[in-house]
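Quick question, first post here. What does this chain look like in 3D?
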Amino acid sequence: MADAPAEREIPATERTEREVTAAVVREKGSFELGPVLLGPPRDDEVVVRIVAAGLCHTDLVVRDQVYPVPLPVVLGHEGAGVVEAVGAAVEKVAPGDHVAVSFLPCGRCRPCFDGSPASCANFNAVNFAGRRLDGSHALRLADGDSGGILHDRFFGQSSFATHAVTNERNTVKVRPDAPLELLGPLVCGIQTGAGTVLRALNVGVGSTFAVMGAGAVGLSAVMAARVAGAVTIIAVDVLPSRLELAAELGATHTVNGREQDAVEEIGRITGEGVDYALDTTGLPPLIGQMIQALRQRGTAAVLGASAEDAVVSVPANAFMQSCKTLMGVVEGNSVPDVFVPQLLDLYMQGRFPFDRLVTFYDFDQINEAAADAAAGRAVKPILRMG
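> Answer (accepted):
Ran it through. Tokens below.
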């Protein structure tokens, strides 16, 4: 008969609320650093000391209430740090582990059961509602404003804070010899671009590929296409600096969409259009150009965030006769526990230099980082919490 499990002493971090620092969006348009109260983890939850967190376009559109997540709220969904405490049922990670925190799947819908957590049928309810599914919160305002209610659980983490309560399902253990402060973007923006190329589109050796938009997601796609063995990699953007970086990271051709007709240029470069393409912008005109730029039977993916009322119009007969495929992709169709360590291994081997995208900021420079990202001065800002 197996020995009974040893009685587990509950650390103080799991027993009581404690004060931590977070960037709170109280009104749309800006972040405000201040003290908040962090509650203890539940049985399936993890307390992570956040070392650094990437700042993503999605954080900005929610800050600006383009996506109306309730306020006040703590955003941040590309966190990396060290496990401080775990709930009683957690087995995947332990205190002291280095982790990166990804999106949170519900774990009980058909796509989750099928092994496709990025296609979770309850993705919005779990990641954008600003609370746990039972309506509770892991954070509250220390000053009592708004009745103390503070919306959190953004992508199951709200990692614009010195500490976060995450779930075992979205906490990814990473190798301890990797630079932890660099790893947060791997779990969202980087895996979205790279995963779409390597997992959703399955770009292969000898393929031709184009990406609309050369931000962090698009440049990650460029690097992944090079890893996949694509022979023609075309990056389309309007910022010369982004196109220069794309060429350095593996793009064989670049197109300035402000000065050139992207569809014509892609046709000229390839002779027939590309095998694969993806759009990171969410802009209907560019999505339309992407579809046009495909060869007969080519495949394209839409993964950029669009306005709620955005509509893409496609000539039905021409689309049917072209035998093209258009798919929507979330988070690169990735299984983070598998794919993030793979990307990290590629980085450590020197084959996926995503550090070239990064600009570091101190936590109290979050509004400056957001402004630089919006203006195109920074490709991928990362906030250092310490």
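The CA atoms of residues 277 and 300 lie 5 Å apart.
The domain at 17-26+36-187+353-384 is CATH 3.90.180.10 (Quinone Oxidoreductase; Chain A, domain 1).
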